[in-house]
Structures are given as C-alpha cells and as structure tokens.
Structure prediction request, 99 residues.
Amino acid sequence: MKFIKGFVIGTLVGMSIGSSLSEQQRKQIVQRVKKQAEPVGRAVSDNVGNIADTVTEQAAETVDKAGNSVVDSIDGRAAAGEAAPTANASPSSSPRAVS
Prediction:
C-alpha cells in the first residue's frame, strides 16, 4: 500500500512540475535525459550482442555433441552387428523388441 501511495504522489508531483515548465526548460530536460541515456543504451546493445554470440556458440556445441552421440551409437551398433533402426521401423520390428 505504501508503494501505491508513493507512486501516486510522485506522479502527481511530477505532473504538476512538468505542467509548470516553460518550453525551453522542457527542451533542456529532454536533452539531459538523452545525453545520460545514450551510454546506457550503448552498453545494453553491446551486452546483448555478446549474449547472443555466447548462446549461439553453446547451441552449436550442443548440436555437435548430439550429432556425435548419434554417430557413435550407430557405429557401435554396426560394430556389434546390429542393424541400424530406420525412420519407418515400428517398435515391434526392432531387433531390441521383446515379445
């Protein structure tokens, strides 16, 4: 409840101050805010790029590991003399199916 009261009071005070400013004062405030926000925006965009690069690298590594695992599994079955499962094979026709 305290938060809501503070928010409402702050909004009302801000609106009353904003309505009493001249056009020149408003322009000065806008310029100051833009000047201070520019480095923050630049830092955020740099970090987003770094995060995207990291995620892309991790996803590529995961896909590579999964692919290698599948290849190793198929190679292991071939070495053991088992037939590799096909995409159309039903579970009952698989050599591992138990009746």
Remarks:
- The CA atoms of residues 49 and 55 lie 10 Å apart.
